[in-house]
Amino acid sequence: MLKLIKMKDKEISNNGLKGKRIVLLGGTSGVGLATAIEAANEGAKVVVVSSSQKKVDDALVAIPQNSEGYTCNLTDEEQVKELFKKIGGFDHLVFTAGEILQLSELSTAKIDKGREFFNLRYWGALMAAKYGSQYIHKDGSIVLTTGTVGLRPWKGWTVAASITGAVDALTRALAVELAPVRVNAVCPGVVKTELWGNMPEADREALFNDIGSKLLTGKVGEAEEVAEAYLYLMRGKYTTGQVIVVDGGSVLV
């Protein structure tokens, strides 16, 4: 029989991020920046990391005070190792780093370019977990980033689908290996971010409108909406090894 326990003389807070230190690799733009801003607004101490000093500087203007920023080439193992030495202890690690999408069909795919994408999105995430996990405080977590193209690939997305599939598996493996550190991932659908910046604005908006009209939500995602999933996974002390899909219902239609 379930036993109800009455809590006495204990303040219960719904804000599990207040006072926490959160490191966001790729936290200077798109979903990463949105997550950094939302977490800071809830009282977290945010550390953003990018390969670009200008992006770090711009992000620190947008994020509430008491935030920090560092530059690092996340594909360079020694730099990643040194980065975490500089940062020191923290509570949550979020990996949203990625490059502007460059898609092509298999017949014209540039294999070397595909390796570059893997170096950042997969090996970068693995190295972040390897060197960052030893600095994570008790009840801390890691949140990686994958994508719905791994669940429902489109023509021309072979490399991207392969990477997201690899990160899905990495998430589950790390949850086992690094326990009790929790490891989860967010799987966004199409979101309005800088990752689509290689397209002319008119073409980009037309694409968003076309895709959005076919989704169950009637629109593509905003970075702030996807950020909520990262916040949930950082707070959720009973959630690990999970990939949370935030896609407007794209895998259903």
Describe what this molecule looks like in 3D.
With 253 residues, the protein is α/β, with parallel strands linked by helices. It has one domain: 3-Layer(aba) Sandwich (Rossmann fold), CATH 3.40.50.720. It is 40% helix and 18% strand. The protein is built from seven helices and nine strands. The protein has helices at residues 30-41, 53-62, 77-87, 111-132, 158-177, 201-214, 223-235, and strands spanning 21-25, 45-50, 68-71, 90-95, 136-145, 182-188, 191-192, 221-222, 243-246. A seven-stranded parallel beta sheet has the order 3-2-1-4-5-6-9, with helices on both faces. It has a two-stranded parallel sheet with strand order 7-8. α1 packs across α7, α3 (77-87) packs parallel to α4 (111-132) and α4 (111-132) packs parallel to α5. The protein is globular. The relative contact order is 0.14. Residues 1-13 have low confidence and may be disordered.
N-to-C SSE series? EHEHEHEHEHEEHEHE
CATH homologous superfamily placement: NAD(P)-binding Rossmann-like Domain
Kindly report the spatial arrangement of strands forming the biggest sheet: 3-2-1-4-5-6-9
Indicate how many domains the architecture comprises. Answer: 1
Number of helices: 7
Instruction: Classify the beta-strand content into a percent band.
Output: 15-25%
Overall pLDDT metric: 90
